[in-house]
Amino acid sequence: MSQKVNQDQPQKKLFSTRKLALGSTIRVIYLVLSTVIGFILTPFIVHTLGAEQYGIWALACAFVGFYSFLDLGLSGAVFTRMSHAIGAEDHSTASKIYATGLRLFSGLGVILVVASIVLAVGVMFLRPGNGTLFAITLLIIGLQTAISFPMRAPFGVLNAGGHFEATTLVLISSALLRAVGTVVVLYAGKGVLGLAAVCFLAWIPGYIYLCYAVHRHYPYIRARDLTKWHSETAKGLFSFGVPVLIGQIADRIRLQTDTIVVSIFLSLTAVAHYNVATTLALYYMDGVIAIIGVLTPVLAMQSSAKDPEGMRRSIFVGTRLGLCSAGFVAFGLIAWGRAFIARWMGPIFLDAYPVLVILSLAMFLDLVQSTTVNALYATLHQKTFVKVNVAEAVANIALSLALAHRYGMIGVALGTLIPAIGRLFIQPFIVRDKLNIRVRDYVAACLSTAWKTAVFLIVPMLVTLRWLRPTYPAMLLVGIVSALTFALPMWYFEFGGTGWQLIRSRLRPITSRLRSGEASARI
Fold it and tell me: Nearest to residue 362, comparing CAs of 258, 458, 209?
């Protein structure tokens, strides 16, 4: 038996550094692809639809975005609990988590179908004239969101096991289908309704693949088990999920109520202009998260394996990586944003540039601390962070409402930045109390990376001043040269290739136990 175990061990790794690298790479590829598609299609969509119809589209998406509140924090619960079950080699619990999560999300999806119909009918009744187009758009997007809810279970399970290549493949295929469909329907003159229909249909092939991928990677999850209800598992998911839900509501308020505030105090045209800045800022956030987000299941597995020293190392690696990557992208948005908006959307949209600068700074402060936030969730200390997040969200919306009347779009953006500055001084003490990392060590690690980031941005700044022009070739050249002159010295002097080596050394005992357990099960 021992001999067979040794033969089988190299055949399959449930969670490996190579898988992390592959997941991170393909996530970055997706972000680059989606960013390029967005940059190309956004001006085409805006100018084809017109500012008013595009404002309807942005407003409908903002309204439907609040549907995520019905998630009840279960996505985070399924992801974290599944990571712990995988780390503990508990296949029975993992199967129960998936089955229970799938049934819960399916029920929530049915509720959203009903809610979408009621909301659309209500809009048409209250505004029977120009509200009809908005109501139908809202209905289509709402139904697509409702159908996506059951798919949160396979997404969470696959990501918990580090199968980012599978989930990202779905995102890539859907992005390509949406891009092609968008061009076709808008050239055909179908307007905002055609755009909504394309977004609805583009996800269907990916959803089918997700279900297949779960059963391929986790054969111990059998179809007949999906019909069973596990009340204790559901109770555990809700226990974890309720604080997560509160945190998600706070995040939604912080990141997506700006559009609604702008529509109330300004106009639909202003929504379209503000959305240019928020689109770039959200691409920024998604890009950095794609780089460092693969560490999230690592933290959960290290927590389940009772490896506090490994978690500490991973937290520092993720924080440093997040700081330097977020710092470079924030520099790019601020240094190149004005020229890019002028070329991308036209000079009429340059009023979005000051908003972009403010939102970039706010996102930078959030992203620098994202690894420690993930660690709090991984160690089941989500309630602590949620309290801070709620306070920040309340301050955000209060400041946005107070400043919008006097300062317009800039005031709304400042309402997002000011609370983020406050959390910068609170987070180190939360890290000390809940993750047992001294404030001095945490701040020292951040400052060490911060000053190197600032020094290595000098050359990109000089390159920008010398060669930046409001043309795509010039901006591409400046971007490539700046990225190379920043990334190469930054990686050598800050990480020296040790980042992934540290993660690999901490994961080796976990992966060895997992491989041994699976090989024994096959015997």
Answer: 258
Question: Token digits for 331?
Answer: 């520099």
CA–centroid distance for 423 within its chain: 20
Tens digit of each residue's pLDDT (9 = 90 or more) over 252-304: 666 667 777 887 777 767 777 888 888 888 878 877 877 776 677 777 777 76
Of 25, 65, 79, the residue nearest 254 (C-alpha): 65
- C-alpha to C-alpha distance for 54 and 58, rounded to whole angstroms: 6
- Asked if 64 contacts 119 with a C-beta cutoff of 8 angstroms, the reply is no
> Which candidate, 360, 362, 373, places its Cα nearest to that of 427?
373
* pLDDT for the residue numbered 2: 34
pLDDT tens sequence across 358-403 = 999 998 988 888 888 878 877 777 677 777 778 888 888 888 888 8
Question: Amino acid identity of 98?
Answer: Y
Angle between helices 370-378 and 308-344 (to 10 degrees): 140
pTM of the predicted model as reported, rounded to 2 decimal places: 0.64
CA distance 519 to 512: 11
Residues 6+ apart with CB under 8 A from 493: 452, 456
Q: How far is CA 103 from the centre of its chain?
A: 24
CA angle 281, 282, 284 (to 5 degrees): 65
Place of tokens 């470079």: 328
What is the residue-wise DSSP string for 79-95? HHHHHHHHHTT-HHHHH
Q: How far apart are CA 7 and CA 398, in angstroms?
A: 62
Would you tell me how many other CB atoms lie within 10 Å of the CB of residue 369?
24
Q: Residue 86: CA atoms inside 13 Å, Cβ hemisphere, count?
A: 29
Which residue shows structure tokens 């969200």? Answer: 393
CB 404 within 8 A of CB 265: yes
pLDDT confidence band for 117 (50 / 70 / 90) = confident
* CA atoms of 375 and 381, how far apart (whole Å): 8
Query: Residue 287 carries which side chain, given as an amino acid letter?
Result: G
pLDDT tens for residues 159-175?
Answer: 877 777 788 888 888 88
Taking CA atoms, 306 is separated from 32, 77, 310, 312, 507, in Å, by 36, 19, 9, 12, 12
First-last CA distance in the chain: 7
State how far the Cα of 47 lies from the Cα of 190, in Å rounded to an integer. 14
- Cα gap 289→285, rounded to integer Å: 6
